[in-house]
Design goal:
Layout lengths: L12 E3 L2 H8 L7 H13 L5 E4 L8 H4 L3 H4 L4 H4 L13 E2 L11 H4 L20 H17 L11 H25 L1 H8 L5 E2 L5 E3 L16 E4 L4 H14 L3 H9 L3 E2 L2 H11 L1 H9 L13
Parallel strand pairs: 1-2, 6-7
Antiparallel strand pairs: 2-3, 4-5, 5-6
Helix pairs in contact: 1-2, 7-8, 8-9, 10-11, 10-12, 11-12
The structure holds zinc ion.
Zinc ion binds next to helix 13.
Protein name: Integrase zinc-binding domain-containing protein
């Protein structure tokens, strides 16, 4: 920016993940190591207050990976000018800094009777949720209620550290069969996943990195990422959320997901999600063959 000679009055960073934005604005002490490193870097190099959330649809940085049609890429098109809101006063931009805690379903009252501890199976029926963020908010809320043994503060201002803890809880849940196999039948486990260089982290989460490290998405982080089975509902919800944020192609969705999790047979999962997506099917029908080639080495 310094080299352009332009005097910038203010810089706003826009991300299309609410959780990432919320995490950047908190101190990173509450996060697991693999998140803390990246967040710490961002906090060091920029002012966390300059980070804003924007919806996936308004994130123009994403459109190139969706493939550009002639309308978008021509002169005066979206790609050249940026989204329409950039021409409005900043106050009118569709960006926000709120940590959403709304949309808590009424039925949670029923499951609150159960104590919520790490060792028990979850009282949250994961299959009932169709939205990743909502699942995390409800889980965070229930964990807080269980911890404080009070319903009073349950739904108020769930913070990003609590959302991260809720996410860790589901990682552990989703990994349970894998961890059991690693402990009881390591030969079989390493036969299946040895090439990924799996390790059991101190917090009991299996992380992989040996192969993952070679990926371009990891250029700014050498951290290892949790391994997830593709059939667990938590994994599906995450992949679905990533897809819905931009309705991108399979390779883009895979790259985005892999910057956070290594999902077993991810391509299969992402392909199924995209095939079932009404929006993408419509778009594919209209697109005139201007598709991006898949990124190398991501299949
Ligand atoms: Zn789609």
């Amino acid at each position: 920016m310094e080299e352009t000679g332009i005097d910038f009055q203010r810089v706003l960073y826009l991300v299309d993940s609410e959780i990432v934005r919320a995490m950047i604005q908190k101190r990173s002490y509450g996060f697991k190591t693999f998140v803390a490193t990246r967040i710490g870097e961002i906090q060091e190099l920029s002012d966390p207050q300059d980070w804003w959330w924007v919806s996936g649809g308004d994130n123009v940085a994403d459109i190139i990976s969706r493939g550009l049609d002639t309308k978008t890429s021509r002169e005066n098109g979206l790609w050249q000018n940026g989204p329409h809101f950039l021409q409005l006063p900043v106050e009118q931009w569709p960006v926000s800094q709120r940590c959403t805690t709304l949309d808590i379903p009424e039925r949670v009252g029923i499951v609150m009777a159960t104590d919520f501890t790490e060792s028990q199976a979850s009282p949250v029926e994961v299959e009932r949720y169709s939205d990743f963020r909502k699942l995390l908010r409800v889980t965070a809320m229930l964990r807080r209620v269980a911890k404080q043994k009070s319903f009073r503060s349950g739904a108020i201002d769930i913070n990003s550290a609590e959302l991260c803890e809720a996410e860790s809880f589901w990682i552990t849940e989703a990994q349970r069969p894998l961890v059991q196999q690693m402990r009881k039948d390591p030969t079989q486990f390493f036969k299946g996943y040895g090439s990924l260089g799996p390790k059991l982290r101190d917090d009991g989460v299996i992380v992989v990195g040996k192969r993952v490290k070679n990926h371009v998405q990891f250029s700014y982080s050498q951290e290892m990422v949790p391994l997830l089975p593709n059939h667990h509902h938590f994994t599906r919800l995450y992949a679905q959320m990533i897809h819905n944020e931009g309705h991108n192609g399979v390779s883009t969705d895979m790259a985005k997901i892999r910057s956070k999790y290594w999902v077993i047979r991810l391509k299969q999962l992402v392909t199924t999600i995209r095939h079932k997506c009404v929006k993408c099917r419509k778009y594919d029908g209209q697109a005139s063959g201007q598709k991006m080639a898949p990124l190398p080495g991501l299949s």
